[in-house]
Amino acid sequence: TDQTWLAHDAPYVSDNGFTIVDYDGSALLTLEAGAVLKLGDGAAVRVDRNGGLALAGTAKAPVTVTSASSTPQRGDWANIEVRVDSVSEHNDFDFAVIEYGGSSLFGCVEVWFDASVAITDSTIRQCDDVGLQADTTAELRDFVDNTLTDNTDGALQIGANEVDQLGYGTYGPNDADGVVADLFEPGHAAPWLDLDVPCVADNGFDLEGAGGATAVLTREAGATILLGDNGSIVVRDDAGLTLAGTESEPVTISSMYD
Question: How far apart are the C-alpha atoms of 39 and 155, rounded to whole Å?
Fold first, then answer.
């Protein structure tokens, strides 16, 4: 059912995690500003059919999703999964702190194909994987002023068509610095900001227009693209590549290796 969990002096504790779902009606869960949710070993929160999750924190009273362990460490719990049949407009994380997850190896927060979430003014840290994984065709409809730091495999992994949804924020330091771009075939005009960490494309990527639309990728001054073994950037039909550097802030294309 639709519920609001209030902030109390004691946390909510879920050893095994839970699924937010209602096959016939609505199951929208809101965690009030200041609420704390602690998850047990391997636990996950799954936002599924007709479900939605709002972490409605404030600057003074964030919502915290963390480990139930008395000695928390990376990978204590699995992740928050935002699935495709969830209620997109209710998936809204504002002033949230999400930490010590990542044992699922799909990020501390995973946004499934075609699912949608807004994350603003939030922190994802100490994850035993990337902080966030957004599958190709997932939507980060608002993603700005976030901090993704101290994560094992980098700030986030994201489909190439979604990289331009990333707003300014703090994307490091992490154990492996960079935004990992996955399944790299941008098919629309995409301005990529300089996020102060490189965009890592192990296999390179193709640029090609789709459905009569052009695909022009623009890299902002100061930005860096790192390519892996035999990685290539291929500019195909109805596509273009603009490296919009300046004398003091060139765009850099280089190797991903140390």
Answer: 22
